[in-house]
Amino acid sequence: MSFVTVKKGELLSRSIEDYPEGLVIPVDKPYRWTSADVIRKVKWAAIKHFGKRNLKVGHAGTLDPLATGVLLICIGKATKLADEFQKQPKQYIAGVTFGATTASYDLEKEVDSRFPLDGVSRESLLAVLPSFIGEQEQVAPLFSAKSVDGVRVYEMARKRYKAGLPVEGLDVLRASKINIYGMELLNYSQPEGTTSDRRATPIPASMDSITAASSRINVAEAPADLPKAEILVDCSKGTYIRALARDLGEALGSGAFLHSLRRTRNGGFRVEEALSLDDIMDILTK
User: Fold this and answer.
1) pLDDT tier at 191 (50, 70, 90 boundaries)?
2) Distance between CA atoms of 167 and 143, rounded to whole angstroms?
3) 15 within 8 A of 55, measured Cβ to Cβ
4) Which residues contact 49 (CB under 8 A, 6 or more apart)?
5) pLDDT of 37-77, one tens digit each?
6) I need a labelling partner for 124 at 20 to 30 A (CA). Which of 19, 51, 113, 155 fits?
7) Extended beta strands in the chain, E state
């Protein structure tokens, strides 16, 4: 692959023809931005920079609105490599709250049920993590971009949710094969008043310092009285970390959802090398 990877502070030619194999920009996607939001902003700036109205711009691997981290933007002929990039292994840091569920498996929807915490502890979580490593089948969240008969499943789920119907009644998704290569518990925090692990290290506030750019994306309040974990996950294409959170809760005889998600690696692209949208706008307006 001879595409050019855009780096922070780099000066780009004004002619896309100087990049015959295209450009790849690793973006650190902002919180509450959809992947489509990012594409629209970058495409607008790239068209102005290169003076080419029919410039091809796309991304490789959607990130949920409430997730941050590596999102690969492909420009020009590099768009043909999007499928190849999507097949690459991914790494995430998942913030999981135990003892409750939401319809979306993250904080886009309000907590809808609470569950017992008797089986939830640092030790029990460490004990079940190895059972999730390896090739397995996973059912995606109903609030996802998967298609059934040409219709996005999240569109069906949102209709049921708005109508006050249980989303779980929408039984349309089949399990898909995924592979989880490794999982590591980074932090575990259990508030006083629950079955306590006093040695736990509190998890930093996940996204408080990141500016919310899209008021269209709802963010519910995370309960402060529930145990939380921060887990490093290395996995294959097609793995839904929200679904993994759901399954971890069930494995502990409770419920769970994501309160934060950060993609730290996509193939050979690491979040430490990713550009902010401000970085990209600076490059494409020079």
Assistant:
1) confident
2) 9
3) no
4) 12, 14, 284, 285
5) 999 999 999 999 999 999 999 999 889 999 999 999 999 99
6) 113
7) 4-5, 23-29, 57-60, 67-75, 90-98, 100-102, 111-114, 134-138, 147-148, 151-152, 176-189, 228-235, 256-266, 269-270
For 97-118, how does the pLDDT look when each residue is reduced to its tens digit (9 = 90+)?
999 999 889 998 899 899 999 9
User: In this structure, are residues 21 and 78 in contact, taking their beta carbons and an 8 Å threshold?
Assistant: yes
Catalytic residue, candidates 18, 28, 37, 64: 64
Bigger pLDDT: 160 vs 164 = 164
Structure tokens belonging to residue 170: 């929408």
CA distance 12 to 285: 10
* Active-site annotation holds for 64: yes
Listed in sequence order, the residues at least 6 apart from 142 whose beta carbon sits closer than 8 Å to its beta carbon are 103, 153, 154, 156, 157, 167, 168, 170, 172, 173
Compute CA distances 101 → 39, 158, 178, 214, whole Å. Answer: 31, 17, 23, 24
What is the C-alpha separation between 78 and 60, in angstroms, rounded? Answer: 10
Whole-number Å distance between alpha carbons of 246 and 110:
15
147-162 tens-digit pLDDT: 555 655 555 555 556 6
CA gap 70, 91 in Å, rounded: 10
For the chain, list the domains and their CATH numbers: 4-88+268-284 (3.30.70), 90-139+175-266 (3.30.2350.10)
**What distance in Å separates the CA atoms of residue 278 and residue 283, rounded to the nearest whole number?**
9
C-alpha–C-alpha distance, residues 158 and 177, integer Å? 25
Residue showing tokens 């629209």: 40
What are the tokens at 119? 């089986």
Q: Return the pLDDT at 119.
A: 96
Q: Using alpha carbons, list the distances in angstroms from residue 263 to 21, 25, 178, 272.
A: 26, 15, 17, 11
